[in-house]
Each structure stands twice: as C-alpha cells, then as structure tokens.
Amino acid sequence: MAEDDLRAERKAAESRLRHIGRRRTALALFWTFFKLSPVTFGGGFAVVPMLERELVERGRLIRREEIVDLFTVAQTVPGSIYVNAGTFIGYRLAGVLGAVMATAGALLPTFLIMVVLAVLYDGLNMNPYVEAAMSGLRPAIVALIAYAGVRVAKTAIVGPLTAVVVVVAFGMLYFLHIHPVILILAGGAIGVLLGFAHRGGRLERDHHRR
Amino acid sequence: MPLIALLIMTFLLVGIVSFGGGYAMLPVIDRMVVSQVHWFRETEFIDMIAVASMAPGPIATNAAVMVGYRLLGFPGALVAAVSVAMPSLVLILLFARAFFKYRRHRLVASAFDVLRPVIAGMIFYAAASFAQRNGLLSLHVSWSTLLLFLIAFVLFARTKVHPALILLASGLAGLVIHFPR
Fold first, then answer.
1. Which residues in A lie closer than 8 A to residue B146 (C-beta atoms)?
2. Tens digit of each residue's pLDDT (9 = 90 or more) over B53-108
3. Residue numbers in A near B41 (CB within 8 A)
4. Which of residues 66-125 of B touch A (CB under 8 A)?
5. In chain A, where the domains are located
6. Which helix (H) or strand (E) holds B153?
7. What ipTM, to 2 d.p.?
C-alpha cells in the first residue's frame, strides 16, 4: 500500500474515533470483546479474523496489520493472548478506559461460564455417573496438555540448546521439584545473560519461527 | 494468613508469571494450592482442571474461578479471577509504549528464546504429573485409560475436531466404560 494511502487511512480512522468519543468507543470495545470471547477456546489466535471483521471492516477503527501486531505483542506479556490483545487494542483506541472495558468484556463470559460449571461441579461431585465420565475425561485432559506442550515445543525448539532447555526444565520440575516460578525467573535471566554473551546475534538461528 | 489473602497472593503470582498460555501455569497453581497448603486432594485438582479445560477462555482464568469458587463461593471466584487478570492489565497499562519500543530489543528477544523452551518443559511436566496421578504412568494402567489417552492425543494433534467435542466424547466414553451398576 502506498505511504499516502496509509496515512490517509490512519487519519480517517482517527477522526472517526474522535467523532465517536472515548466512552462510546470503550463501550463498543467491551461489547466486541464480550461477544467474541467464547470463540477463544484453545488459543486466542482463532479470533483474529472475527476481530478484523468487527473492528476493521465494520468499524474501520484500526488497520488490519495493527491487529496482528498487537496480538504478537500480547504474547510477550504474561496472561492470555486474547485478553492481553483486548487490553492493547482498548488502550490504543480509547486509552485506559478502553483498555479496562475491553479486558472486562473479554473476561466476563469466561467468568460467568466457569461459575456455572463450578456450581454444577460442586453439586455433582459425588455422583457416580459424573465420576464415570471423569474417568474418561482425565486421560483426555492429559492428552490435551501433552499436545499443548508439543505445540509450544515446536516454536520453542530452534536448535540443540533450546531442546536441552526443554529437557532440563522438565527434569528440574519432575525430579528435583523446583518451584516453577523460580524456573521461569532463571530462564529469563539465563536468556538475558546469553544475550550479553552473544553480541551481535541471536542465540540460535530462528529462521523457522513465524 | 486468612484464606482470601492466600487466594489473592496465589493468583496474583500466577498472573505475573503466566507466560505462554495457561497450561504452563498448571504446575504453579498445583504447587501452591495442592502441595503447599493442601486445599484440595490431588485427584480433586485434576477434576477441577478437567472442568476448567472444557470451558472457553484462558485456562489460568478458568482454573482461578474454579479454585476460588470451591474455596469461598462466588466472592472467592470473583477475587481469584480479578487477581489472575490484574498483573497483565497493569503491566500493559504501565508499559504499553515501552513494549512497542523494546519488544525487538536483543536482550528481550534473547530472554524469550530461553523462556519459550522452559514453558514447553513446564507444560510437559503438567502432563506428566497429571498422568502419574491418573495411573497413566504406571505398570497398572488400565487398557481403556491408555487407549482413551492415545485416541484423544491423535484427535487433538491430527484432526481439526473442536477440542471441546473431543473432551465431551471422552466423558461419554468414560460413562460407557465405567457405567455405574
């Protein structure tokens, strides 16, 4: 896209935002993220196309590329990708109010659904039928978590060093019972130190990372 | 320490360190609510996570709601959910600008290069410790349990079937296999 077009498009979006006003934008963001929240089962990225339809095509409030960028940044902050993306997009479009409203919108459906499930679970806990269903569910949950591990490992392992880190992290938790929080802090610290040591380049080639 | 303060602290910590999606957080939650304070029995915790995985939305939030509700009812659920969501909201609000500026910084990128495989190791650990409590990692594992695990794994990894449907089917399979007489 030509530079001029880009600038014009951004300007138009901004004037639309000014026209609508922060409060109404924040409300619209709440509703958008509320609506799309139940779709986020199994990873936030599934929502990107729908979010584009809401905010880019219908609202024309933000550019398509910006949404993808914000999702990428959202991954580098702790927390769920979808909720973080909501906070970022909300902040970008309507400041702190927008960030809080979009975050609340993203979390509320999950919260309500979970409360209902928790109430049901409490009531059904000792039921023999529920216990039987749970006996089938437990191995499936193990499979789901193992598969989540495989997916993360695929993007995390970019060479022999990172492969060793996966194994060492697993071993430290499984055999030495190290507190997981310590492992995360140590991992980040080692990464920074290695970054210092390898001036001028990344630890390992990361050509197959998206 | 009062229960509610412990609940808030637990989930604030989970919120701070929950990089890389929810499943890596299971060992943290497990460590804090099962091994350290014994709020729940181990199998009870797996069952709660099973229910939390079936709902849409981030697993860490779902687990927080579940744990909070079982401990202190609705207020507990609310407090736990807010605690787990607060750190990332505050972090983003404080550093939104800096994030855009520094996320490509060499040292930040390098920290994440090591963090990602750590997260992968944590998720595998979550799977392994759940499997162990489930009897999946023992010589006495029942054929039906092993088979359910393998079928579910292949379905998750190789097909586009919605994960919630696979979990639902597994629950039904459990009901059929272990039908109470």
1. 139
2. 777 778 888 899 999 999 899 999 999 999 999 998 998 888 777 766 676 678 87
3. none
4. 66, 69-70, 74, 77-78, 81, 85, 87-89, 91-93, 96, 99-100, 103, 106-125
5. 3-122, 128-197
6. helix B143-158
7. 0.78
